[in-house]
Amino acid sequence: MANVVSPVVESLTGHIKKHLGYAICSTRHVKNMEKRKKVLENRCADVKKLMERNIINGKEIPTGVDDWLNDVEDLKKKVQSIPGDRIGCLNMFMRYQDGRKACEYTEEIEELITTNSGFNWSNARIPTGRVNSQPTSSTTSMPSPVGYVFKSRDKPFNDALKFLQQDNTKSQVIALCGMGGIGKTTMMEQLKVDKNVTKLFDYIVKVVIGRDPNMQNIQNDIALYLGGEGLLEATQTFRADNLCTKFKTILEKGKKKILVILDDVWEKVNLQDIGLTSPLPEGVKLLLTSRNSNICKQIAADARSTFQEVIIDVLEEAEAKKFFFEITEVLEDDHDKYLTGCNIVKKCGCLPLAIKLIASTLKSQEDYVWSDTLNRLNNNDLDDNVKEIVKISYEYIKDENKEIFLLCGLFPEDANIPIEDLMRYAWGLKLFKKVPTLKEARQRTYTCVSKLINANLLISSDHVRCVKLHDIVLAFVLGEVSKEYYACLINHGDVSKWDEDEIGESCKKISLTCRGLKHFPRHFKYPNLSLLQLMHGDESLKFSENFYENMENLEVIAYYEMSYPLLPRSLKCSTNLKALCLHSCKLMFNECSFIGDLVNLEVLSFAHCAIRKLPATIANLKKLKLLDLTGCVDLHIDDGVFNNLERLEELYMRVSEGEGVRFTNANIEELRMLSSQLCALEVEFVEKNTWPENFSFEKLDKFKISIGCQLEEYEYTEKYSYEKTLKLVTECSSQLEACKINEMLRKTEHLHLQVNDMIGLEDISISPYGQRSCCSLIELEICNCVNLIYLFPMSVARSLKKLERLTVLSCSVLKVLVQDDGREINSAGEMIKFEKLKFLSLKKLPKLEILFNIEDVVELPQLVRLEVEGLPNFTSIYPDKNNSCALLNSQVRIPELEELSIKSMENLKQIWDDNNNISTLRKIWVQECDSLVNLFPSNPMRLLDHLERVWVSNCRSIEVIFNIDLECVGQVELVTNNSLRSIYVISSDTVREVWRIKGGENNYSSKLTCAFEALKWIDIFNCKRFRNIFTPTNTNCKIDMPALTNMRILYPETGNRQEEEVWSREERDDSTSIVAFPSNLIHSFHNLQELSTGIYHGVDAMFEIESSLAGGRELVTTTNNQQPLLPNLQYLELQYMDSISHVWKCSNWKKILILQKQFSFQNLTTIFILGCKRIKYLFSPLMAKLLLNLKKIDIVFCEGMEEVVSRREYKDEAMTTTNKTTTFFPHLHSLSFKGLTNLKRIGGGVSAKSSTGITTHDQFEVFFYMLLCLRGCLVLRFQNKLFVFKIDFVFSKRFEKACRFMLFQNCILEADNHFFIQSLF
């Protein structure tokens, strides 16, 4: 028992002694705590000194120092809570508390002192690449990028940011590419400090590669970013190994992520030299900036990593001007400088760096300096700094590329330069070595062009197979290279200022636009000339008879749109002339027989020259390799022409419009014999007796051939950019067998078929190639095949690996696109994938039942546009839970659909339901779908992530565009991108609202604000029943559209007003007042700039400026912190609103003026009112005071209008006495009235007689008189009549004698029954 009790007693005794000690020895405990606290404070001061020193010197701070300092500060606050004046206090309880706390705090102090002793302060430098490497106590932060914010940069910036955030399987190497001075490095700097990037990466390593990279410095910089210390290794290889080790250590042990940025890349970088392996490690992303995208692709290929390119283009013109004038600090009011500056910006081609350089030199300069700068730019005299932007890129390209680049400089500014023309010029000038055929020359030309585009010296054009030159690049070519090195004379401006001695006889190339030129200089002699290009000469231009004399070295002649140009006939010219290219030229008498004398010609083009006959003398051109007769309508070819063209490789005879080539039997036979040697052929065999039989098409690798029809004109359309096109129209597929078209099907890219007896595509694919007979197809068009039941068997469908566009139109019995024909026994369960299909159009297929009549899953991974029209068997586009007849059933997968067009689907009940997730959709068009009730499901959120445009037309069952039930909106369905920009609703009679919102008690209405906050344009046109933009059923539900700038609600005046009035009477309750923009809605459109409404029936007023609330009327502005109403509205248009009596409805305008710090409608500049019969006046006096910027008022055919400004309903807010002048509309310069039969006055007032006996009016009218007179127009009211005069500055003597008065007295004289007023100018 004692053994048990004794330890317990000892334990209790010790515990009691301890607590008694807190009270008895409290003074000692507190003093000891204070003593140890001073030690801790000294340690803390030392730590702060060490910390400050390391921060200044960029050295590492030991881990835990920040937390230790915070703990010290917290403990000091605790210690201070023990008052020192209680020492010696007789209150035992307080002594006990103080002693106990002092002991506890002393222990904590000792722990902190011990922890401090463990800090290891080294001289290791901070890795500069480590994100958030600076300690929290430091006042330094990452530098913000210097530059301006450009809206056009948003997309490439966001694209780059998206690629950085993506998984490495989608993007691991990202390149920012663009021409010099475009802003690549600026965007890289902005990305580097973006919070989304700094959160994503632990280290950001940025090094500049440059034109002459110093690998030792680059390696050392990377080491500093990763470890804070430089490299000591002597060789490049050892340094690379060290870096590789550093990367592995950070990635593997620390599980960190690293962004490596290589800026200004000119040549391929060996990634092993900078410590990176191939493939790139998992935690690494590589961001490149370069002028040459091809170099970036090579780096990504070496890294064996996924590659994404972001192209940065020039600025939009508006933001380029803003950028320029922000730098120069010139305002639009300085008209001369502003106009000159706009032209300078245009000559800079909206290139940011060029604008910045030039603008900086022009800041605070005189007008003549600006004009001189513009003149220099017009003369291609670039500033040295601007010149350097292009020069360093030019110096990096090789000789052949330079030659092609300089040929591009022969064309006018902003010209679309055909690559085919460059090839023909290059062939005639013999620029390519060891290139024996035109095919190889074309390939070489396209290769050069591709390299120049990748180097950003050329720009891709909107026209197919064309390129363009940036203005600054063209100026560099014309101003520097062409004159200094290549002796070119190029003038596409004012040829009247052409200095023929500018180059002299050394000139090798001439390119002139001859518009306005009457004759060439008398001494037009250039013996070294190798290329002559003339453009746009009219019939008045005269050539001298000896024009080509002394041009024996001429190799290329190219004439564009020249009327009756003189063509070479001399034997001297025939010696070296290799290429004669005429395009859209008028030839004298359509005579070209003398061309046969130019026996050394290898390229001859009469494209669109309207020659009617190809003479037999052309057969003399035995060296001819290319003959272009494109667009020569109703052409007759002499027999025997083709027989002697032994070296002909390419023949172009496509007409497209008008009568085609009139082939004779002899022509066809000669063409058949020639076909075996041709590599390129464009021809139309329209008449059945001219169809090609037994032709050999084996060598053809470039062709556009039609049989039974003409080819369409698609020269500049991207859709038809294919070089291998076949168009077949026939009654019977067997008729095509003799034409041997199967030889071409295997290599055809664009195939158009209209074969009446074809049941399936394989009916015309009878060839030894089997299922691969259509393997090269990129576009397939099937039209008017009346017996076609199915399009592809599965075997053919699987072979269409390259198919990008598929159109099926007007096939009356087609039931299915892909049919399981039972031939593929071992392929059950395999997915069918149309890997590259981007466009699918299905129109007027009344029997179509299903797209894919197979059990396998069908995937269209790249389909972005789907068009459907006239498919009556489908009630839904996407499947729903009721398993309705859906076009895209559950087996069809389309993950990337962006554009959906639906038209004339008579039985379509719905497009999708709440369970469909089509978040990639950007645009939707719905037309003539009379059974469709709901455009969107009740929960449209998952459709709105990327939706940009909604277009609804001629749909007679839709009442609401967005019929949203907030109770269906889930908690996680947030809209993140806010992409919707425009809504168009046209000729849809049943549409009443754009938004109808139900529910809202769950506070999901904030999601609606996010979903529509980017909307800019709403257009409601010809919708008879339309009533409201937005109808909430719950007062808590709000919708905000801060970006909305344009709204149009119009119905055209058709003359059938009886039907319109019936619609209006049926739906209007006469006891209620309808306002188009009620007070609870008007603040949703804060940034609205243009508003047009018309035939908006039942509306009494446009804008309600107050709301009826319980307890009285409260102004809307007071509920929104006195925010002005529609402060950005600039244009207001009202048309044929028969019921409207007020534009602005408010009971207390004076209170509005008092409450608002900014005026409502303060930016309204234009008002146009047409056919609003019930409006008696436009403004109250106080409303007129709000419209400070109003410039133009047009009021037309408003029979009820009596006054423009009236105080009739605002007696209590009458203006001040007429003796005091009140200024209204200080910027008004146009006031137009027409058809106002009841107009009595502009402003209501009381007339008075002056001492002179002449009628004067109140000051409001006086203001109008003076203002309009100063603007050159006068509006007067006299004897209850309105008179409008145009003031001239030159008056007849009779008029001057009749008019003797002062303007400010508003005197009116009557002369010859007309009223006049004399100007004081």
Oligomer: single chain
Q: What is the arithmetic mean of pLDDT?
A: 78
Tell me the overall shape. globular
Unreliable residue runs: 133-146, 766-770, 1053-1071, 1107-1121, 1212-1221, 1245-1321
Q: Kindly provide the radius of gyration, computed on alpha-carbon positions and rounded to a whole number of angstroms.
A: 41 Å
Query: What portion of residues is helical?
Result: 25-40%
Going by helix content, strand content and strand pairing, the class is alpha/beta
Gap from first CA to last CA: 128 Å
* DSSP strand content: 15-25%
Biggest sheet, in brief? 27 strands, parallel
Q: Quick one: how many beta strands?
A: 60
Helical element count? 29
Describe this structure in words.
With 1321 residues, the chain is an alpha/beta fold. The chain contains 29 helices and 60 strands. It has a 27-stranded parallel β-sheet. A 5-stranded parallel β-sheet has the order 2-3-4-1-5, with helices on both faces. Helix 3 (65-80) runs antiparallel to helix 4 (92-117), helix 8 runs parallel beside helix 9 (236-253) and helix 17 crosses helix 18. The radius of gyration is 41 Å and the shape is globular. Mean pLDDT is 78; it is low at 133-146, 766-770, 1053-1071, 1107-1121, 1212-1221 and 1245-1321.
